[in-house]
Design goal:
Blueprint (H helix, E strand, L loop, with lengths): L12 E5 L3 H10 L5 E5 L22 E2 L1 H10 L3 H7 L3 E4 L4 E5 L2 E2 L8 E4 L2 H12 L5 E4 L2 E8 L4 E8 L9 E5 L2 E4 L7 H8 L6 E5 L3 E8 L9 E4 L8 E8 L3 E8 L12 H5 L6 H5 L10 E3 L4 E4 L1 H4 L4 E3 L5 E2 L7 H19 L4 H26 L6 E2 L4 H17 L3 H11 L11 H9 L2
Helix pairs in contact: 1-4, 1-9, 2-9, 9-10, 11-12, 11-13
């Protein structure tokens, strides 16, 4: 099913495991350098904009943060405009998104920052359609990767097997490659496959807050503001429930609620609206009063957050991107943005070196780790506030981080400057060090 006709490091074949958002962005990042990019996807794609089994989280709320929007539009010029034309909404972080933090409602101010809200199938479909226009990207659908080729020092391809009657190509075989990118998401088996090759296990960090959530779509009333949203954050440790109301295409709302371990929502559909009344504010429950649901409520348990440090130990010819690299607690809305940042890092590295070789892969791994570090530390630091959380960071550094964030949020409910700085960090357009600049730190520590 493929031949290895060129040496490691040239512009030969790249294989991407998984054809979801991260996988498609990875394929696009590679297509300008690799002679051939093969995307191996377990599912058959739906004909239109619809859900598919391989993305169970797609039926729940998704956000593309400001940094993610900018990165997506850089990778796929015009993509943001196409999403907006298809019904996605840019909800301003101030004035559009009403955010109830642990300290209270954030102070309003004028801002160009926004979150992009739409259903997950809409963004997946737009990216897929764009990626399919590249003549050197081929998709093997209804096909799954069953293992890696190579040894403990270098990955040289993948083993594949067809799934079902409508598989593409042969039933099983091998695809040789200069580079293998794992973008298989939370269900990745790469750690096991690398172990079989004799590669050392990648160090990993694991935080399990026991999060679970339930989601329901509603027809948005005609008199409702299509550009507004609500986020009711949890308040550790006594209130582990959270809720969100987001506008999505088709004149709909997506309404979600969830909780950390000990605050799990019931997955029974008849309990959905009743549980909205248990949130810290009645805003979401009041908003959907009289709104007609488009279907039943659905539950989802994403599992623990895991950061796999492949930058420290992975063999040549292999890297991981998106959830295959780091799975975040989805309540913080970071996943798609970090995946886009990882794809941009991959594009920049292979473009800089002009090949798929060791230097480009090492540079990409380091850049993915750098893009992951801040959102991981922020999310993990919040998760460990809840007594039911298993694992995660501890010690003085975490306590200082938590105390600092508490002070920032306490000030941000009345001070627009501090609220703006917090939004910039949350949107991932600025690092957390922004909060330590005198213009922010002064009001946080001393008021005024």
């Amino acid at each position: 099913m493929g031949s290895r006709g060129s040496a490691v490091g040239d512009r030969g074949t790249a294989v991407v495991i998984g054809g979801g958002l991260a996988g498609c962005l990875a394929a696009w990042a590679l297509h300008g350098v690799a002679e051939r990019v093969v995307v191996v996807e377990r599912d058959r794609y739906p004909e239109g904009t619809d859900f598919r089994p391989g993305v169970p989280q797609a039926k729940h709320g998704h956000l593309l943060l400001e940094a993610g929007q900018r990165t997506l539009d850089e990778l796929l010029p015009g993509a943001l405009g196409e999403l907006l034309a298809a019904g996605a909404t840019r909800v301003p972080l101030s004035g559009g998104l009403r955010w109830l933090t642990a300290a209270g409602w954030l102070a309003p101010y004028e801002s160009a920052l926004a979150v992009l809200t739409c259903s997950r199938p809409l963004i997946d479909r737009l990216v897929l359609d764009r990626v399919r226009t590249a003549p050197n990207i081929e998709f093997r659908t209804a096909t799954e990767v069953t293992g890696l080729l190579g040894d403990g020092h270098a990955v040289t391809g993948v083993q594949v097997s067809g799934r079902g009657r409508d598989r593409d190509g042969e039933e099983s075989g091998e695809i040789s490659a200069e580079l293998v990118v794992d973008a298989a998401g939370r269900a990745t088996h790469a750690a096991k496959w690398l172990s079989v090759l004799g590669a050392p296990a990648a160090p990993r960090e694991r935080v399990d807050a026991g999060v679970s959530y339930a989601t329901r779509f509603y027809h948005r009333p005609a008199d409702a503001d299509p550009g507004s949203a609500l986020y009711l954050q949890s308040h550790a440790p006594e209130q582990g429930r959270f809720g969100v109301l987001l506008p999505v295409e088709g004149d709909r709302w997506i309404v979600g609620m969830g909780g950390m371990r000990g605050f799990e929502p019931s997955m029974q559909a008849e309990e959905f609206e009743k549980q909205l009344g248990l949130l810290r504010d009645p805003g979401i429950a009041e908003a959907i009063t009289g709104a007609k649901p488009t279907g039943p409520a659905r539950g989802f348990v994403p599992g623990p957050s895991v950061w796999r440090h492949y930058e420290r130990s992975a063999p040549h010819g292999f890297l991981a991107l998106g959830d295959a690299s780091c799975t975040f607690n989805p309540v913080y809305g970071q996943g798609m943005t970090v995946a886009a940042l990882g794809a941009r890092a991959l594009r920049n590295a292979v473009g800089k070196h002009g090949d798929l070789g060791h230097a480009a892969v090492r540079e990409t791994r380091d850049a993915i780790a750098a893009a992951t570090r801040n959102p991981w530390q922020m999310a993990a630091g919040e998760d460990v506030r809840f007594p039911g959380t298993i694992g995660g960071p501890s010690g003085l550094q975490v306590r200082v981080q938590q105390r600092m964030l508490d002070r920032v949020l306490a000030r941000a409910v009345t001070d627009a400057r501090v609220a703006a700085a917090f939004h910039q960090v949350a949107a991932m357009v600025e690092p957390p060090t922004l909060l330590f600049r005198p213009s922010v730190l002064g009001p946080v520590l001393f008021g005024g």
